[in-house]
Amino acid sequence: MNFSTLCRGWLAGLLLLALGGIAAAQPAPAASLANSPVFVLNSLDADVSVIDPSNWRELKRIPTGKEPHHLYMTPDEKSIIVANALADSLTFIDPRTAEVQKTVRGIMDPYHLRFSPDMKWLVTAGNRLHHVDLYRWDGKDLTLAKRIPTGKTPSHIWIDSRSTTAYSTMQDSDELVAIDLQRQEIKWRIKTGPMPADVYGTADDKTVLVGLTGSDSVEVFDVSGDAPRSLRRIKTGAGAHAFRAAGDKRHVYLSNRVANTISKIDLTTLQVVANYPAPGGPDCMDVMAGGRFLLVTSRWARKLTIIDTESGQVARQVKVGKSPHGVWTLDHAAR
Questions:
Q1: Which of 34, 116, 190, 330 is the most buried (most CB within 10 A)?
Q2: Distance in angstroms (rounded) separating the CA atoms of residues 174 and 216
Q3: Which residues on adjacent β-strands are paired with residue 68?
Q4: How far apart are CA 29 and CA 22, in angstroms?
């Protein structure tokens, strides 16, 4: 059973939970929030919601291409790139004005994407076509360097701090793959737990965490040697899925899509230190500058959820489009 089929099975129950009534809460104080817009990708509407965080109103929708799932900022912070998987295209948007800058076509099946820290590589995961593409980036244009056949359904990507290795999960063959960026080839692969999704590496490049969406845990791998080793699993919640650094260089958040929670993991102890409610099938996240407010896309409820991490409660929900996935703002905490 692939990820899409399983998600449809969860949908009815999640909608009942999401729409069953959330106690109205006060919005986050405007003084705590930034003025740059918040962008939410509506995967099944093929557009982007642009939200004003001063009043949490949707300003407009930006048409993109079919199934925009994830987005990433260019190294110069002048553009955010929206990856339109079924349109085989990338949409460049000004993060300050929310104006479309350009569309790059011929990018095959860009489901997930990530820049290398040295700004030389853009790596994309071809979810439906079972490949990872390596693009050279000169600050303006992308050039395909290598298309690497991987395994069944590459999902998410992480690149180490030295820009030498890209890690990608294979959600339907239950694997983690390491790709040597200079040699442009797979250097190893290892089995994981069921349906691995997002992947997150620690600052020392020695440890990689993988969210197991088909389970209730994060699997921890030692990648410091020539061969990887599975170390342990951290129990978080059903549907462990996507990561976002908390911005304090010590903690990382993880969305549990089925459990409707967010777990906060201490990277020094590899233990869950807090959990927050996140109704409606929480998926991608961003953290507002200052670190207090967590933005979460509620995939099945068609909403953006704002969580106050100090109170541990939902502060507000904002209606967006169908199947909201990626979320991002320029005024975010450190990643």
A1: 116
A2: 15
A3: 84
A4: 19
